[in-house]
Amino acid sequence: MNILDKIIFDKQREVVLKKSIIPISQLETSVFFGKQTISLSQKLRESNSGIIAEHKRRSPSKSIINNNFTVEEVVKGYETAGACGISVLTDGKYFGGSLDDLLLARASVNIPLLRKEFIVDEYQILEAKAHGADLILLIAAVLTREEIKSLSEFAKNLGLEVLLEVHNQEELEKSIMPSLDMIGVNNRNLKTFEVSLDFSKQLASQIPNDFVKVSESGISSIEAIQELKPYGYKGFLIGENFMKTDNAGEAATEFIKSLQ
Fold first, then answer.
1. Known catalytic residue: 54?
2. Which residue has the higher pLDDT, 62 or 23?
């Protein structure tokens, strides 16, 4: 069993437990349920930098990245830096995140928030909406075409945008459908954790222009972004590069300034 399989196995058990504690009716009473969401796809289309900055404490491959800052400090720093949106990791066991992180981020900034999570159930999409997310992530590697369709349509009906993540041609081909807004290519192979920008380059021409193209993981330099822009990428998700510094907001500010 690889790390991704382990994460999904644990996630399915976690969702069953959560459903038994917090009913859907309770999630639907959240103040955010009727709130208009902010479009990340539109912001990326209009932006010169396209940076989606990530709040991430740790990861299975890197262990602890940074535990020294509050969520508020990080996300406010990102918003001030000019990030188009913020990705908030909410997985606890493997990434040290929580839904409280998403809630605190929503209370602190007014730019699009992505719930970065291993989504396997509609319940998690309701959680995302209830905690102030504007969009969700779906990972093609762990979902069938039918699951991608039902989960993305469910999200759209709640007013959430959908970023679908792929790693290869096969995942991309099974996933293309109108209920997606953005297609992200993860440059990290989730099974081996090998990182290469070639994943983004190879799949770029296969992604229809109806979708905003996002490149994720392994982007740590201005050169990497300049390398990917000619391939049609409008969004660039950066996490560890900012989080591993002494000041994530300042690191993002310098990075985004260099792109202008």
1. yes
2. 23
